[in-house]
Amino acid sequence: MTIANTVASGNACPPAAGAIPALNATAARDLPVFDAALAAEMAPLYERVRHVVTPMEWPHYAPLIKAINDLKKERNAVILAHNYMTPEIFHCVGDFRGDSLQLAKEAARTDADVIVQAGVHFMAETSKLLSPDKTVLIPDPKAGCSLAESITAADVRLLREAYPGVPIVTYVNTSAAVKAECDITCTSSNAVKIVESLGAPRVLLIPDEYLAKYVQTKTKVEIIAWKGHCEVHERFTAEELEAYREADPATRIIAHPECPPDVIKVADFTGSTAAMIDWVKTKQPRKVVLVTECSMASNVAAEAPNVEFVRPCNLCPHMKRISLEKIYDSLRFMQHEVHVDPQVAERARRAVERMVNAAI
Ligand code: SF4
User: Fold this and answer.
1) What pLDDT, in 10s, does the model give residues 11-50?
2) Ligand 1 geometric centre to CA of 166 (Å)
3) Do 284 and 323 sit in the same domain of this protein?
4) According to the model, what pLDDT value does residue 8 have?
């Protein structure tokens, strides 16, 4: 494989009302008070997260969740909650949950007028590409991504010059402007099949170097990679994971392909976020390390109470910009709308639709 370098650039009981005083922010937002009536109304939602949200936290979250869910009805809005959102967002206000592409496809199928992207900016752009007539909001416009920001549209144009005739596949974790310059998009679950579907001997797979290296181990097509990394997944090391296994040999290690190759080598299973979730739910290991963003382990733990999750907690600072407060404000003030230049959108949509139509 080549690196392209020619281009510069568990709480059983629901919490009692009044367990903690309302926070100042709650008062400023004129939210409902967490009294006995609200506690009872919200009890079914608390049930979903009681293994991962403490009774002390719930009186702060519940009024915001109630206000957001009421506003969604008022605005005919849906919330797309990425796997890396914290559990109170993922399980209590998210209408659709999953990885970015699953979310964008689900949103395009709804008749909602407004989409709130509980995720990062490139995801909101992808939603806008697939739902051009809907209003797409992002609760914090500064929610970026180290991987998406590792490459620009100008870089891709230079790659085309440096590798004439070589098809360019972009991971969905890129801006719309970058997608517009590429032939087709891919996800971590379909990357190998997309690369092979092109029928070319060499393919540029950008921007994640580690995903490209992983794909190279699964195909005879020569992969040319870009040196972009996810700042969350690149922090894991094989040594720390081996230490978990040494401490308890029953521990299963499940890694995302954005991890470095030595991490993937020690993993029992490597797959996309959706594949990791399926693996845990199907295999029900006694103990597991999910080698990915920390909140995903909390979200899966809420639905797999018999599995013990070891949590080497690498948080994505960009994903963590999204909070219930910001979701509430975005819906209340209809703020931080995401726009994509129509010409860019048309070309970027083509790259995404080509992947979707490949039915892989
Ligand atoms: S986890 Fe990594 S790839 Fe995902 S948004 Fe954060 S930096 Fe980007």
Assistant:
1) 334 455 444 444 444 447 789 999 999 999 999 999 999 9
2) 27
3) no
4) 41
